[in-house]
């Protein structure tokens, strides 16, 4: 069940190109990381896979999955896929989650829509999912609103909701950017743990090279809406081919090697 993107091109309504012939694929169970600076097109690529491109944008090319082109699928068809077969964790859960609905009800939403689970069965599944993402106080968490939780808790809730229907493809769009370093490491370890031993395909979007190398086996490097390099994580770190990729590796090496300033 390979997800195959070929010549994906996205333009604005006025013809300004945002993505230019983006091409890459990931097999079932694979882990691909998309990295690049802000505005490189990495999140826009993820949005195209989900069928969530902003209104007015024109997309051409193909995103093939299970014998269908997601770009030409109707919104009705995508609603059956989105959340059930292909799910997404967004960068900032405080804006992705509904502030007026308890997180338990939000996690139960996909279960009712795609699995016909309601009542006690849904509540039991919500409890199981919250505990699976290491939120032990599941009853309190389920009864809470997003704004009553910490950033790390909200991101765990978003991950639980994305995994509720056991999707075939999980897209994580910069899920650790708004978190502090300690919580960031916990979320990365959790993502790795949750999909290890499964056939779930992971697409992990980030601008942070050290972060992305922790969870991805293959890397797609993007710049100015184009793919500049596609390689394995090991090859990218040990010997990138493209100058831009080398800049990313050098910058990451300098940042991780920076000594701490002495306290006065």
Shape category: globular
Strand fraction band?
A: 15-25%
Tell how many strands the DSSP assignment holds.
10
Sheet of most strands? 6 strands, mixed
C-alpha termini separation: 57 Å
Instruction: Give the strand line-up of the largest sheet.
Output: 6-7-8-3-9-10
> N-to-C SSE series?
EEEHEEHEHHHHHEHEHEEHH
Secondary structure class reads: alpha/beta
Mean pLDDT: 90
Instruction: Give the low-confidence spans.
Output: 257-264
Counting DSSP H or I runs of 4 or more residues, the number of helices is 11
Helix content: 40-55%
> What is the gyration radius calculated from CA atoms?
19 Å
Structure, explained:
This protein is α/β, with parallel strands linked by helices. Helix 4 (103-115) runs parallel beside helix 7 and helix 7 (151-163) runs parallel beside helix 8 (181-195). Helices cover 41% and strands 23% of the residues. It is globular, with a radius of gyration of 19 Å. The protein has a domain at 103-166. The termini are far apart. The longest helix has 15 residues, at 181-195. The strands form two sheets. A six-stranded mixed beta sheet has the order 6-7-8-3-9-10, sandwiched between helices. It has a four-stranded antiparallel beta sheet with strand order 2-1-4-5, with helices on one face. It is built from eleven helices and ten strands. Residues 257-264 have low confidence and may be disordered.
